[in-house]
From TrEMBL:
Keywords: Oxidoreductase. This is Mannitol 2-dehydrogenase. It comes from Pseudooceanicola nitratireducens. The keyword Signal does not apply. Transmembrane segments: none annotated.
């Protein structure tokens, strides 16, 4: 059955579907970067509220800022913006159709349709999932980088921006001038202090061209910090076939694990849906939840992805079935990351390590090593290197953390142990590969990548451990080196 509003009542028995009248929904949220994660996470929470008869005026408009987003817009428009969510659990598969999204803004080079949509006073939240690397931050300092070509363009030609942030600023200018008031800017990306960083990027970019507008945004808009969590693999032919096997013709279905978490600050300048009624957590301790997740889950992903890639493993579940890689994850997480993570209500760091171990090991989730290893230059600098800094400052163990960096370097050299090629998988791949090749004989060449490591290479304890592990990886191989660390 081809998915559409007209066929909802004809879907196979057992497929949950919207009980609300989608024709009566009106938009309140515009989401930029409408990939699988948003549809499995934020859109699902809103769908649950709508199923309970709430939030009918908070429906989602999708949006994108890159030409390739047009293909996704067309796919979703042809099925009335409905999405089939398929939960993958070792105990069995469940599916539901989510209908909280009701439109997708047309893609244009000057982003005029996007600016117009955000200028509408009905839109009270603009949310984003643009990946860790999409915030124009200096990799080493994680501060706003005003030198990027796209940022310079937007600072000088604000009526035809290239970036999502330039479009946000243009829309906020329109709203201020029309007396419509601000909207909440809500980051849903895996970044420490994601709301604070989003504020820095938007306000700093606005200040380059319009200081008065920058002040207005800084005072009137809100930028809540949040932590989002759900493992959502990429969609390919297998996922499309899964939906077909369930009796649904969906061009863009989404698979996901049987776990979700959303932790937010309650700081919304123009109102918000009652997400707490469907399981979201509102707290002033977002940072503690965020640090636990970023350091153990996201950092753990980076710890295991590099050795898996070098050994030619394909999925994260397959990676966790490798006894030495699983031992690496548990030892690093428990002994070297855990001491720098605080308890949160109902969860200690050790309990969280066990939870992540189970989630990573779920054989029903075919999350690929390549997806997890993508953009390591952002993910290592966001999730792993801050823990190394904490370990240096506290004098706590960092041997396994140094090994994780040696493994990343070994992966970026571009060959697996079986001689096959690791295809480019990072925006800075050429630079990383050159440094990794040089580090084969002079390990310090990797730590000389100051735009990522800053002064970490100056610390003798970390640099010495890195040097020792990288030489071992090239001399002995991945498995013997992991065995040397894990015992």
């Amino acid at each position: 059955m081809k998915l559409s509003n007209a066929t909802l009542d004809q879907l196979p028995e057992g497929i949950a579907r919207p009980s609300y009248d989608r024709a009566t929904l009106t938009p309140g949220i515009l989401h930029i970067g409408l990939g699988n994660f948003h549809r499995a996470h934020q859109a699902w929470y809103l769908h649950r509220l709508m199923q309970a008869g709430q939030a009918q005026d908070w429906a989602i408009l999708g949006a994108g800022v890159r030409a390739y987003d047009e293909a996704q817009r067309v796919k979703l428009a042809e099925q009335d913006y409905l999405t089939t969510l398929i939960e993958l659990d070792p105990q069995g598969t469940q599916a539901e159709v989510v209908g909280s999204m009701i439109g997708y803004v047309p893609i244009a080079d000057d982003h005029a349709p996007l600016i117009a949509a955000m200028s509408d006073p009905a839109i009270r939240i603009v949310s984003l999932t643009v990946t860790e690397g999409g915030y124009y931050l200096d990799p080493a300092t994680k501060k706003f980088d005003p030198t990027h070509a796209d940022i310079r363009h937007d600072a000088g030609l604000s009526n035809a921006p290239r970036t999502a942030f330039g479009a946000i600023i243009a829309a906020l200018r329109n709203r201020r001038d029309a007396g419509h008031g601000p909207f909440t800017c809500q980051s849903c990306d895996n970044l420490p202090g994601n709301g604070r960083l989003l504020r820095e990027v938007v306000v700093s970019l606005a200040r380059l061209s319009d200081p008065e507008l920058a002040d207005w945004i800084d005072i009137e808009c809100s930028f809540p910090n949040s932590m989002v969590d759900c493992i959502v693999p990429a969609t390919g032919p297998r996922e499309v076939q899964l939906a077909r096997d369930l009796g649904i013709e969906d061009a863009a279905p989404v698979t996901h694990e049987n776990f979700r978490q959303w932790v937010l600050e309650d700081d919304f300048c123009a109102g918000r849906p009652a997400w707490e009624d469907v399981g979201a957590t509102f707290t002033d301790r977002v940072h503690d939840y965020e640090a636990m997740k970023l350091r153990i889950l996201n950092g753990g992903h980076q710890v295991i992805a590099a050795p898996a890639e070098v050994l030619g493993l394909t999925t994260i579940a397959e990676t966790m079935a490798h006894p030495q890689i699983r031992a690496l994850f548990r030892k690093v997480a428990l002994e070297e990351i855990g001491p720098h993570v605080h308890d949160v209500p109902g969860m200690t760091p050790a309990q969280y390590v066990d939870l992540i171990d189970r989630r990573f090991s779920n054989p029903a989730i075919l999350d690929t090593v390549r997806r997890v290893a993508f953009d390591g230059s952002s993910r290592h600098t966001g999730a792993v290197l801050p823990v190394i800094r904490d370990a240096i400052a506290a004098g706590t163990p960092l041997d396994g953390l140094a090994l994780s960096q040696a493994l990343w370097c070994r992966m970026c050299e571009g060959t697996r142990e079986d001689g096959t090629t690791v295809e480019p998988n990072d925006p800075f791949w050429a630079q990383l590969q050159a440094a990794a090749s040089a580090a084969r004989t002079r390990p310090a060449a990797w730590l000389d990548l100051r735009q990522f490591y800053g002064d970490l290479g100056d610390d003798p304890r970390f640099a010495g451990a890195f040097d020792r592990w990288l030489r071992a990886l090239w001399a002995d191989g991945v498995e013997p080196t992991l065995a040397a660390y894990t015992g």
